Amino acid sequence: MRAKLDENLPAEAADLLRAAGWRCDTVHDEGLAGADDGRVAAACRVEARVLFTMDLDFADIRAYPPSEYEGIVVLRPTTPSRRNVLALLARVVSVIKAEWVGHQLWIVEPAGIRIRD
Q1: Total structural domains in the chain?
Q2: 47 CB contacts (<8 Å, ≥6 apart)?
Q3: SS3 sequence, 1-60?
Q4: Contact 103/71 with Cβ under 8 angstroms?
Q5: Residues near 103 by beta carbon (within 8 Å), at least 6 away in sequence
Q6: How far are the Cα atoms of 5, 7, 8, 10 from residue 28, in angstroms, in the given order?
Q7: Are strands 50-53 and 23-26 parallel, antiparallel or unpaired?
Q8: What is the pLDDT of residues 97-110, one digit of tens each?
Q9: Per-residue confidence at 116, pLDDT binned at 50, 70, 90?
Q10: Which residues span the domain enclosing 18?
Q11: Domain containing 37 — which CATH number?
């Protein structure tokens, strides 16, 4: 599977996804750091990559319909620290690998996962 990490995620998140078998790029690697959400979303769509982000704007299915993207995963740790973000991603990466169906929005919180088609 292919992923793109938004700029609001720590670089170590790419290592977690790669260890789980994902091909992972970051917006920093591609010169998209600071780009508006629409440009990041368009790059994900063209490259058929699942976007991993903490940006709640991507949870708006009217603006970013899951059917138009390979997928969007919005991480929502209780406290947005590097440690908490990485712990949340580490907990969910095996679930994503086992349960992933393309063209969905996953909102990942410590209490669970909400999935929208």
Answers
A1: 1
A2: 2, 4, 25
A3: CEEEECCCCCCHHHHHHHHCCCEEEECCCCCCCCCCHHHHHHHHHHHCCEEEECCHHHHC
A4: yes
A5: 66, 67, 68, 69, 70, 71, 117
A6: 9, 7, 10, 11
A7: unpaired
A8: 888 889 999 999 99
A9: very high
A10: 2-116
A11: 3.40.50
Nearest-CA neighbor of 69 among 88, 100, 44?
Answer: 44
Two tokens, residue 52 = 């991993």
pLDDT at 78 over 90: yes
- Cα→Cα distances 86→17, 61, 70, 104, Å: 11, 25, 22, 22
Q: What is the sign, positive or negative, of the torsion defined by CA atoms of 101, 110, 37, 6?
A: negative
3-class secondary-structure state, position 84:
helix
The pLDDT confidence band at residue 96, using thresholds 50, 70 and 90, is confident
